[in-house]
Amino acid sequence: MDAKQYVKNIQEKIHQLDQGQTEYLQAVDEFLPTVEGFLEKNPQYIEANVLGVLIEPERIFQFRVPWQDDQGNWHVNRGYRVQYNSAIGPYKGGLRFHPSVNLSVMKFLAFEQIFKNSLTGLPIGGGKGGSDFDPKGKSDAEVMRFCQSFMTELQKHIGPSTDVPAGDIGVGAREIGYLFGMYKRLRNYDAGVLTGKPLGYWGSQARTEATGYGTVYFVKHLLADKNDTFEGKKVAVSGSGNVAIYAMEKATELGATVITCSDSSGFVYDPEGIDVALVKELKEKNRERISKYVETRKGATYYDKESVWNFETAYDIALPCATQNEINEKQAAILVKNGVKVVAEGANMPCTLEAVAVFAKSAVIYCPGKAANAGGVAVSALEMSQNAERLAWSFEKVDGMLDQIMQNIYETCRDTANEYQARDNFVLGANIAGFEKVAAAMLSQGLV
Q1: How many C-beta atoms lie closer than 10 Å to residue 444's C-beta?
Q2: Domains of the chain
Q3: CB–CB of 108/80 below 8 Å?
Q4: Could you give phi then psi for residue 309, rounded to 5 degrees?
Q5: Which residue ranges make up the annotated binding site for substrate?
Q6: Which of 42, 55, 56, 286 makes a 20 to 30 Å CA pair with 272?
């Protein structure tokens, strides 16, 4: 069987088995065609049906999470953990608490995580978890009770050599602390069971900054390869959470002017450059809406219930750092009209397949999240190493290692794309490079 037919058969089977899992099928449809060339060159993987085995998660846990609010009323949410692939190491991937969480979203994130983790060069497999619980508007006590209930079930399936969760949307330092506390009570102390912990109990320096910094480092190395820098560039960013804040901080530090940021209520345009310290105060300290930004920065404008990506103004680089599918085909065309040269995903799959096609036709360099935002999981793996050694490394050491890892990821994706005569096709480069390492490990282990 040739590679094209082999991939088509797998794609049709997954669509039949997983009907209605929109986000997951989108991720699969983006990935599968890009590895055809690799399979043609390496038919042993077709003969062993490695891709057919890999496409199925090793195991999925779904469980109820009952919790009590401050008025004494009982609620129940759904919890998930998708342990997708452990060929190159223990499952690694964040926990997301958001109303949009369902099995499809969890599978899509875990599937992407396999190849993202592979690209880091570190020994970590792919997984993801979370719940449709919404921490917004909840008291600290309510969030604590939910986290304790969630961990009561999750702790049966995780461990420092088995599955090591971290944070994601809706799971920050507060939630990680409550989750870790409950794990410790149930299973005794083990620092390596969660990453993204506060520094006070074996968290890592630079973990908070890692995803945002890493995305900017990836673009930095891309620009350097083209004898260019961030200096003087205008950058549009979506989001105002952890990833967006530190992407803005690093881009500004490297000489760019960041002109936008957003939350679910709307976005801010500041032509003088986003005041990152003010965004940190509003979002990290006060948990305010981004609309409050313009009360302090009089030269800025707030656009209510609007997307950054509908805004028409000239800029050079787009960093979508909010959530999946935030840039559609029409919005991608607006980015092209705005003169954007590079789109790098700080969030997971923020561009639809149709948007990516627009970029490809317009010679916009598109850097997919599995490569561009791998900095977060890379530093999580470095946190695991520090926990295992009972050591704490300096910020400068971890940040330097992060920059080097992102350079390695960029060069791996670039070189793989060039090998397949697909210059600047970082989707193909990332997918083949990530898949090759995992597939080889699976084949050598007997596809168990």
Answers
A1: 9
A2: 3-49 (no CATH), 59-189 (3.40.50.10860), 210-363 (3.40.50.720)
A3: no
A4: -80, 0
A5: 92, 113, 116, 167, 380
A6: 286
Whole-prediction pTM: 0.93
Chain position carrying tokens 């590679």:
3
The DSSP 8-state label assigned to residue 74 in this structure reads E
Measured distance CA(342)–CA(364) in Å, rounded: 6
Annotated binding site for NAD(+): 211, 242
Element (H, E) at 443: helix 426-444
Q: What is the pLDDT of residues 11-27, one digit of tens each?
A: 999 999 999 999 999 99
The tokens of 208 are what? 């908070």
Give the number of other Cβ atoms within 10 Å of residue 404's Cβ.
13
CB of 318 closer than 8 Å to CB of 82 = no
Burial string for 261-294 (b: 16+ CB within 10 Å, else e) reads bbbeebbbbbeebbbbebbbebbeeeeeebbbbe
Q: Annotated binding residues, as ranges?
A: 92, 113, 116, 167, 211, 242, 380
Question: Reduced to 3 states, what is the DSSP secondary structure of residue 261?
Answer: strand
Q: Cα angle vertex 427, ends 426, 430, to 5°? A: 75
Q: Residue 159 pairs with which residues in a beta bridge? A: 163
**Can you state the angle between helices 103-119 and 375-389, rounded to 10 degrees?**
70
Active site residues: 128
**Residue carrying structure tokens 């317009």:** 362
